[in-house]
Design a protein that fits this description.
By secondary structure, this protein is mainly alpha-helical. The protein has one domain: Four Helix Bundle (Hemerythrin (Met), subunit A) (Up-down Bundle). The chain is 70% helix and 0% strand. The chain contains five helices and no strands. Helix 1 (28-57) runs parallel beside helix 5, helix 2 runs antiparallel to helix 5 and helix 4 packs antiparallel against helix 5 (177-202). The longest helix has 32 residues, at 136-167. The termini are far apart. Residues 1-25 are annotated as: Disordered. GO terms for molecular function: cytochrome-c oxidase activity.
Length: 203
């Protein structure tokens, strides 16, 4: 058989399905995190709807008669969580500069601040003096703050994985998506707590 009769293959032949078309300029990891956050905002929205129904529509006393919320402790806890947002940003900026010491210090500080917030929240539940079953107001209080606490716990797990990777030297000034995307989630958790604290403890 002549060589010219053999099937010719282009050097750029591609085997398998073609690459997926990306219509968004946002990278898939960031887009996925943003969509997840939108879904979580809807979950919080359901709890806030019940909260405003009790306070605005029903006009019930908040918190229930005889109950008292620890505003000062919650305020200190708010400052702790907001500080963790600053250290999270510091970690990302350190990664962009290739400063490994600052990355390690930043992520470790962020993790410890987040853990401190969660432990203070648990201690508040232990000493607050009322249970979720005592009243509708108590149920909403535990529901909103507990839902946020679950998000903090998830965030701490993400921070823990990030901490391990940083200490193993995984991130560089050109590849730090593993810090940036979880950082978006952590900033969301912090911002959501400001809303929860303002509506539940202050207003």
């Amino acid at each position: 058989m002549e060589a010219s009769a053999l099937p010719l293959h282009d050097a750029h032949d591609h085997h398998g399905p073609p690459p997926a078309n990306r219509s968004s300029r946002v990278d898939p990891q960031t887009l996925g995190m943003l969509l997840f956050i939108i879904s979580e905002v809807m979950v919080f929205g359901a709890f806030f709807t019940a909260y405003f129904f009790i306070r605005v529509v029903a006009g019930d006393h908040w918190p229930a008669q005889g109950d008292e919320l620890p505003k000062l402790i919650a305020g200190v806890n708010t400052a702790i969580l907001l500080s963790s947002s600053l250290t999270m940003h510091w970690t990302l900026e350190a990664a962009k500069r290739g400063n490994r010491f600052a990355m390690k210090a930043g992520i470790l500080t962020t993790f410890l601040l987040g853990l401190t917030f969660l432990l203070i929240q648990v201690n508040e539940y232990v000493h607050i003096g009322f249970a979720p079953s005592d009243s509708a107001q108590a149920s909403i209080f535990y529901g909103l703050t507990g839902l946020h606490g679950c998000h903090v716990f998830i965030g701490l797990m993400l921070l823990g994985f990030m901490l391990i990777r940083i200490f193993r030297g995984h991130f560089t000034p050109h590849e730090h998506r593993g810090i940036e995307v979880p950082g978006i989630y952590w900033h969301f958790v912090d911002a959501m707590w400001v809303i929860v604290y303002t509506t539940v403890y202050i207003i």
